[in-house]
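Two folds, back to back.
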Amino acid sequence: MPIGSSIGRLEKGWYDGFMQNGAAGVRSLFLWLFLILLLTACTASADTQSALPTQAVAAVLPDTQTPTAALDPALVPPTWTPAPGATSAAAGNFTELSSLGPTNTPTVTRFIPTNTPRPTRTNTPTVTPLPVTPTPYVSYIPDLPPSTDLGPSKMGLHIIRANDANILEFVKQGHPAVIKAVDNFGYLAEVKAASPRTIVVGRINYPQQLYTGSPEEAAQKFVTDQLDQYLINTAVDYWEGWNEPDPNLDNMPWYARFEQERIRLLAQHGLKAAIGGFATGVPEMDEFALFLPAIETAKEYKGILSLHEYGAPDMTYLYGEPLPGFPAYPDRGSLTFRYRWYYREFLEPLGLVIPLVISEAGIDGIIGNRPGPDGFGWADFQDYWVQQGWADNGVDAFIKQLAWYDNGVREDGYVIGFTVFTAGGHGQWSKYDINPILPQLIVYVRSQQ
């Protein structure tokens, strides 16, 4: 509604009220005069304003072709950066446009990883591995030259039972360097009568081999329990103690003291000891070093060392292999000819060489992690040896291995001899029994005299 129309209505209302109400109209008069003055002031103010509402100025980006001097800095948005090549044409009354950006923009240092490998994806096809075929074992088959310069054979017999006439025949014709007897000793008088220079080593099975208590007291009980047998079997030259002990580093000092006391106790009765009796493949070199006190005592009392050496699937297995911490040598092994490590690394340098008897030797299939077929004694491997090319038959193949070992031990003057396990084998030892091949063994030892 126009402001003039509003004022006309107010004037007409005041006049009508004054005329009708008298004194009350006077008060109304002053009220209406105030209102008229207020409306008049508002009307004057309104006449000085634009009739249209104020419009906001739109931000228009300048044409990049327009010289910078013609640009009004007030029209430049704060985030705008001039196009490349745009310069300030006037040294002007305002700052160059390039300075209109933020002045506190942080400097960003590029992150470069240091020596961090990044995986590289390749399209590697999935391959199903083929079954691994282990390299077949090939026997080391030595060339056995004539051994006339080596002296007589050092092959002997390990005997469980003297139940074959060829056992005594072997003694009579072969005059073996050594015989090993276990538990049964009555026939040994005949052995000594037939071959007085044959050395006899005896052993009595003992039910307990425990590294407990005092080693000296254990040795005293051991000797006491067997002394009667020692005294009545005078054909035995050396008595063994425990069978195939395998002391570790913790037990070897105990066992050395046990053997030292046993040596002394036997000496009190005019008897001699064969000490050690170690199983095939033990002890390790650091363990043997702890056994040296027993070697010293044996040397003092004219005792000997005994141990066992087997191989499988043939006697040359692991020949030339090193022992832990030592280099390989072509004439030593970790099974057969293991004794050379003890003598060459310890006993010879220390002046502790004592005679040695390998009181069990041959084939023993219970050796762990070996190649070849399942089996126990020599009889189980005959076909395998033929396949390997040792000989045309299993007996000749076995004798050829024994001859190889015999040639080796004859090179070492401290070795008295070795005994093939075993004559008189029965029960669990039937596969080891050499009674069937005693005639061939007689032929061999006679050929070496």
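---
second:
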Amino acid sequence: MNARTLLLAAALILPVSGCDKLNDWFGSKPDIAFAPYGDDYASKPDFAQVEYAHPIPLQELARITPKYLAGLNQEELDQLYARLSSGPIPDGPFDGEIVFPRGSSGKLRAAEIIGGLKGLGVNFKGKMLETAGETLWKGKVFYRDQKVLRNRIQDLAVLRPVIGPGDIPKIDVDGRDAWLLFPAKLYCGQSLIDSRRESIIIDYAFTDEIRGYREKPDFLAGRRGLKVRDEIRMVRPGLYLGRAYMDHAFILNFVLVNKDVDKAGRAEFETGQIRDDCWPGTQKRVLAAR
């Protein structure tokens, strides 16, 4: 497998795109409390207790930005994710960006796992991963009714030797063309970090069963490739926090954003009555009143 193919694989797990641009239209920094914790696993707090002791006010969820999330460490991101619910399964195009936690070696970990996968045989450096994500991956498009997702690839120059002949479907997002590759199935399923309630799952395992599947390069994300599986929960309409896994190993956090959906859903969000498409669990989610 050559370097171009691996660059493509990196794009699947490195959603990096314009952090500053995405933060321009959000509110001020939120005030969200976190339970105390230590470095060892035994010191990590129970998520149910975190939610009971530190409910998040709706107005604080409304202030969360990708920049704020990028300033959290992994334990804080985990505690925040556990206090969210699925929200509705998204529909339409979303921009994405990576959230490596503060002080984390997540970039290197992703590179190590890719490089260590049997059959890939290339030592994939962290900087190469970043570059691939920025160049190739610009977001995702959700097809809610079909329960399918596709990834937006904005530059095919690097991928042409891998893709081969044939037309590739395109989508226009904010006046910019993007090609659609790497389909995934959408469904509700158990979170790999918090089993108290379901998350929205983005599953590439059986991508070859989806209409429009291309063996090259789509197989890279599936069960014969990197075995990618994402899960997301809603911060508010138009803003989702996600966790990416490869072969059940946690790799990184990511954010999906749609400014128009966020704006349109604000009024309903402020009532606290946004509907979850996935099972909310037997432990009622706690939201602090305004």
